[in-house]
Amino acid sequence: MTEIPRKQTLRKHERLYVKTAIDSVFQKGNSIFNPPIKLLWVKEKEKSGVAVKVAFSVPKRTFKKAVTRNLLKRRMREAYRKHKITETGIEETCALMFIYSGNKINPYQEIESKIVLTLQHFKTATAVK
């Protein structure tokens, strides 16, 4: 039997864009740090149709030009899209915020490897709790 490949998309309902949800991630969230990627995550009270909602951020203080910030966010989004989490070990929806904390522009392969490593750490953290 062949396995049906899953779609590698990142749709709007999978994105974290509500300000109150983003604020709760920053205020009450747990963190995982694999330089230059920092992951903040929290379990949401509201249940939605997806297991994980995600957002990406690059600090304006470190990277002054919007072109550079957008480049890094695109690289993080693409890496997450390829290796995204479809199921978690818990019933609630998790809100994830990826923050690029480095001070230089890393190549895509390095960002992708750090995102994959961070997602593995996240899976083990949610499986234990």
Counting DSSP E segments of at least 2 residues, the number of strands comes to 4
Contiguous low-pLDDT stretches (5 residues minimum) are none
Compute the separation of the termini in Å: 34 Å
Structural class label: alpha+beta
Q: Helical percent range?
A: 25-40%
Q: Please, what is the average pLDDT? A: 90
In the CATH scheme, what's the topology name? Ribosomal Protein S5, domain 2
Order of secondary-structure elements: HEEEHEH
- The quaternary structure here is single chain
Rg over CA atoms: 15 Å
Number of helices: 3
Strand order of the largest sheet: 1-2-4-3
Percent of residues in β-strands: 15-25%
CATH hierarchy: architecture: 2-Layer Sandwich
What would the principal axes of the Cα set say about the shape? globular
Any idea how many domains? Answer: 1
CATH class identity = Alpha Beta
Largest sheet: 4 strands, mixed
Question: What distinguishing features does this structure have?
Answer:
129 residues, Ribosomal Protein S5, domain 2, alpha+beta, four-stranded mixed sheet, 3 helices, 4 strands
Description:
The chain has 129 residues and is an alpha+beta fold. It has a single domain, classed as 2-Layer Sandwich (Ribosomal Protein S5, domain 2). The chain contains 3 helices and 4 strands; from the N terminus they run αβββαβα. It has helices at residues 19-28, 66-82, 108-128, and strands spanning 30-34, 37-43, 52-57, 94-100. The protein has a 4-stranded mixed beta sheet, sandwiched between helices. Strand 3 (52-57), helix 2 (66-82) and strand 4 form a beta-alpha-beta unit. Helix 2 packs across helix 3 (108-128). The N and C termini lie far apart (34 Å). The model has no long low-confidence stretch (mean pLDDT 90).
